[in-house]
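Researcher: Final request for today, and then I'll write up notes for the group meeting. The sequence and the SMILES for zinc ion follow.
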Amino acid sequence: MKRLLSLFCLAGLLLTMAACTEGAQAPSPSSTPSPSPSQSQTPDPQPTDTPEPEPEPVVYPGPDVPLVEWGPDQVVEHLFFHPVVAYPELAFDGDYMENGIDDWMVTVTEFNRILDSLYERGYILVNINDVWSEQPNENGEMRMVRNTLMLPEGKKPLIISIDDPNYYDYMLENGFTYKLVIGDDGEIWSYGKDPQGNDVYSQDLDIITILDKFVEEHPDFSMYGTKACLSVTGYVGLFGYRTNTDKANQTPEFEENRQREIEAVRPIIAKLKETGWYFGSHTWAHFNLQDASLEKVQADTQKWMDEVGSLVGETSILFYPFGGRPDGTDVYSIGPVFRYLQSQGFRVFCSVGFSSYTQIKSEISAVICDRLHPDGTTLRSARALEWYSQFYDAREIIDLEARPDRPVAWLEE
Ligand SMILES: [Zn+2]
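Model: Predicted protein-zinc ion complex:
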């Protein structure tokens, strides 16, 4: 039942991401605004030269912080978010996207409230790659095992993943930031436009820069500076840069622009890696694996590796679009699509649910896990005060002034 619900939950918004099929969107050079410095909040963030990397500050926990074991039987919670709504007046303007954004996103205000609550309750960010590892079993077969984590006393481990930080075209019109850039200070900023159409460079409007700032201000919210896993697709490129191919547009001009975009995104990716971010696949085309053919999955995976993996590097983490489990299920059995994906190097397969459920597979080297999703569906749910109560009190998170006038189940009881 839980898994049925989770499939249902993700089927909404992302269906309307017009481009779940290959080539459905034809990015033009003009869709990638150049970060001109006019009206910017930071001086000239044009990423012309890659700045010299500065020595990293000492990260938490230092040698003076005693660490205690968090054993393999103790839960490692896993939350996921989409990009956050920077301008609710654009997101919730009554157009066809309004309900989808209300369902599947949180606003900047809500995300800040959630971070404050997670921090107050003792959560600390860990890297999903540290939670499990692959080891030989007694028969010499490689299998996944849950590691013992070493954490500061009183802290509880938390994985955060962020799906679809690709800066899809629909987001640009609906109150989200447009792309990541590197400012003169060498740090990541977001670029976008405010409701009046002014260029805005900021570190307070994008989920990535907000989390960067939060960890900078609260170093003990992160083990060794780790941030979150960025679950990226490929069909409109990466982080606001149109690095993707497009079957419908194979002109030399398109390819020249694509190569420029590839060069432009490289320093962004390098900076993200340097500052604790890491990457997973969300497939290239963002399609449901539940009923996808093996051939389709093979072609898509190759394309993700060619266009995305070639830039962000290898990953063993796969995030199912719409939460859709390959071959119809990966809980009760392993099918050919799952086996193929595992053969391509994926080991951690993430769906969506209402608990941080995990299952280490015995017959193959893989682990499946669910993630919880703070968003409009769960914040409005009758069980909002119960399902997410270890993280926050939904009554203190939901921003009903910014969100559209839709039912809040726990208010009506
Ligand atoms: Zn997605």
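Model: Residues 14, 163-164, 282, 286, 321 surround zinc ion (CB under 6 Å). Residues 380 and 408 are 4 Å apart (CA to CA).
Researcher: Thanks, that's everything.
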